[in-house]
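To assess whether ligand presence alters the predicted conformation, the chain was also submitted together with geranylgeranyl diphosphate. Input:
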Amino acid sequence: MDLERYLATRARLVERELAARFPPLRTRLRQAIRYSLLAGGKRIRPILALAAGEVAGAPSRLVLPFACALEMVHTYSLVHDDLPAMDNDDMRRGRPTSHKVFGEGMAILVGDALLTEAFHAMATARGVSAERTVRIVGEIAAAAGEGGMVGGQALDLAAAGRATSLARVREIHRWKTGALLRIAVRAGALVAGADGVVLRRLTVYGERIGLAFQIADDILDAAGHPASDGRTDLELEKATYPAVLGVDGARQAALRERDAALAAIRPFGPAAEPLRAIADYVVERTGLAPHAAEPATPAAPPVPVARARRVLR
Ligand code: GRG
């Protein structure tokens, strides 16, 4: 499959929907929201939701409000994470951070608005039963909140500058980054009404891919890769895989997570090709990982990961 094309079409779908939800307005708040939300970004969370929906049998138009909600939650977390009280970053998605352009107060409000509007988008989604919607909303709230992303951020702040163990780093990553990626996959499946073994397998995929993604991000950061803008983990004295295992150990760990993700979705057939290609891409964006030893679908042509890297950067 052509991963580049797949990612580009799905990202366009998400971009169009986000732009339609936040059309230009004269207010400074709307300008600031659009500045951060429509600034590019890989859109990996909404794309995972759409891809999991395809595996489980949900049309994109039904998954889209939930996919966009995930991107809104993610963008709010980036805007708040960049604030002086947190990572104090000047650059995000290749441009000056929200607080640098609009001021700290407005950047806080951008995050507040995006988080709230994410739940508005899900509550007003059409075509999905109220029961399913409530379940997805509850799961996204849990993944974003104290027991997920925000809790992980708190652990991360507390761990900065201290010696830490692999178990602790894994826990921080699972909460801070993994929870949202995991629920992105589950959300797509839940829109389709997936349950039982399909949901379990997709959940394992989401968990493993979430960890692989964060480890890869740690490696890129340690290597000073241009994909990771802002201040480095080293400067911030963050708990990372390379800090605990070294870069090679971290790479091996990312590969193990990728392989576990691929194993979880092995029975799924051609509809899962995008998820397989994304799993490969997630570790290959570190530039040093080989393909999975056992191709998931032997007949499938190699995924053009080099080109996909350009799209996702
Ligand atoms: C609630 C303030 C607050 C923070 C939550 C997710 C998070 C914790 C902070 C974001 C900062 C950060 C660098 C987290 C690591 C996760 C990560 C790799 C974020 C970048 O995600 P990408 O690569 O970014 O998907 P794009 O720009 O492509 O969307």
